[in-house]
């Protein structure tokens, strides 16, 4: 798997400067990376729930068909698949995603994970990655309806919060080393 050429989209992408970001060291050797995006204008939390339930598939942009996940981030995202759905066939807590991307579109920043969804509702979306049943990473998105759209915040925590954390987290960092460049 290698980074794909960026998709050309007819709208401007928000610059990183339009968001607030940070990095924190947490107890037990974990790290937290967060970003608070500028308001996503004209988008409601309900629309974001629909989006996360429908990341697979294609969408037409400027007369060309592209994977929805790639259109979301035309440079970094590679592919996504729902590898396990809920018993009712839907996407939500208990479903699993296979996520492939490259932070900053760089081969050394490869992400290829199997994540289990813990939350998907109008308040947010949370998925985690585990190795042998031990959590090693968690991505949390928070949605808040505000005047004109939705405030969209997310955070990535790398490392295990459990008692094995101090022993496991160096392994988590080796597996998730891309996050050190975020």
Low-confidence stretches: 175-182
Helix and strand run: EEEHEEHEEEEEEH
Give the number of helices. Answer: 3
Share in helix:
10-25%
What is the correct CATH architecture? Answer: 2-Layer Sandwich
The total domain count is 1
What is the straight-line distance between the termini?
Answer: 20 Å
Shape: globular
Structural class: mainly beta
Fraction in beta strands: over 45%
Short description:
This protein is mainly beta.
Describe this structure as you would to a colleague:
The protein is mostly beta strands and 182 residues long. The protein has a single domain (19-181), classed as Alpha-D-Glucose-1,6-Bisphosphate, Chain A, domain 4, CATH 3.30.530.20. The chain is 14% helix and 45% strand. The protein has 3 helices and 11 strands. The chain starts with 19 loop residues before the first strand and ends in a 7-residue tail after the last helix. The model is unreliable at 175-182 (pLDDT under 50).
Keyword list:
182 residues, mainly beta, Alpha-D-Glucose-1,6-Bisphosphate, Chain A, domain 4, 9-stranded antiparallel β-sheet, two-stranded antiparallel sheet, 3 helices, 45% strand, disordered C terminus
Task: List strands and helices in order, with pairings.
Elements lengths: L19 E7 L3 E7 L3 E2 L3 H9 L4 E4 L2 E4 H5 L4 E8 L11 E7 L7 E12 L2 E8 L2 E13 L2 E10 L6 H11 L7
Antiparallel strand pairs: 1-2, 2-11, 3-11, 4-5, 6-7, 7-8, 8-9, 9-10, 10-11
